Amino acid sequence: MTTSTDTKDNLKPTKIWKCKNADCKAWVRDEFAASEQKCPICSGPMLRSMRHLPPVQNKAKSQPRKPKSDF
Hints:
Elements: H1 4-9, E1 12-19, E2 27-29, E3 46-53
Antiparallel strand pairs: 1-2, 1-3
Pfam families: YdjO (PF14169)
Region (Disordered): 52-71
InterPro entries: YdjO
């Protein structure tokens, strides 16, 4: 059984980008943000911030598959 303290212990301060638009609730982890800092939902400007979030495992990006040849 997991208690709320176990969940809180797993949270780490994480850099994020959040939308400056008060009506938009979008945010994204810094390591997953695009190079241009525009909101993915409303295209507004993004503001750097911090949030306590559970850590994630970044998987290595897989190489694009080569198209199958007709041979």
